[in-house]
Amino acid sequence: MGSLFDHGHQESSNGFFFNPSITKGEVITCKAAVVWAPGEPFEIEQVRVDPPKNMEVRIKILYTSICHTDLSAWKGENESQRAYPRILGHEAIGIVESVGEGVSDMGEGDYVIPIFNGECGHCAYCESEKTNLCEKFRVNPMKSVMSSDGKTRFSTIDGKPIYHFLNTSTFAEYTVVDSACAVKLSPDVPLKKMSLLSCGVSTGLGAAWNTANVKPGSTLAIFGLGAVGLAAAEGARSRGASRIIGVDINPNKFVKGKSKGVTEFINPKELDTPLHEKIREMTQGGVDYSFECAGNLDVLREAFLSTHDGWGLTVILGIHPTPRMLPIHPMEIFDGRRIVASVFGDFKGKTQLPHFAKQCMDGVVNLDGFITHELPFSKINEAFKLLGNGESLRCLLTL
Description:
By secondary structure, the chain is of the alpha/beta class. Helices cover about 20% and strands about 25% of the residues.
């Protein structure tokens, strides 16, 4: 079994020492953060990572960060999605260590970001301009094994399987993903910032650009000022929105919001009138767009009602637990308000993310400020506490 740093390493353009020839085709033993049961602390374990099979890629993870989806999965909030032991994580950047048979769009030493919403490029969904879902590799929280053979590529030292998460499983020094779920980037990308494109920034900013197609001079309200909500604000700011109202019960988020273009703030706890009535009053009838980023159905209803009748659009970005249903009566939609959900900001990952990364590097989008904390991988439990307590946007873990 190989280890990347055994001997003969080479330096990459970003300063990382790398020599895949010593591990290619071998089972790698490395560290991973394994969750064994809902809510139990992550255990840093030695795990085995198999070589990639047909149309798969093995990646050395350099940086990974934590999203609220990881937090929800760690808690096991949706019982039907539970699978343990499991390696969570879906926001990261890394280097291709080796590729399986048939992979031609990336190779050893390439920088890649894993994406939870894959793109095979040839199914009816991928060929359609109407969706960014893929027939086989779309986001699927129920999926816990690889597509090709229904087995895992992770195992304990004594050979017991460890399950995958969201097509990516980035809380490990090495992971194996389907090639449809890895996006090759330019070799000169800023690695830490580009890790954000795996989920949070792409989801929020893409919702403003692609899903809502925010117009210059428009008004909007963002419900929940975490990383996704602030990315939506950044997307709206870059599109020339005139007013961006930020809604959150944590006033500490307001300072960060200003740097992302938020012009006004509302703390619902300080209101003596319904939230949507306050927003309608502020905007003479309601906002053009609202973005629900909290994963709370009561908040979703307020977001829907805060938009202007006749043309208001609400975009759902929050992850909602079952079994409660949409809190909207069909007749309320007859007033012209629309509601839609956005997956991965409606970006097609393989074909559109490299251009988006270039836009970020060219200054069209400001990625500064999203990473609020940095910790070594061994302190992953501390990082989860920071997110759960509302103290961090993204905590970057160095592997």
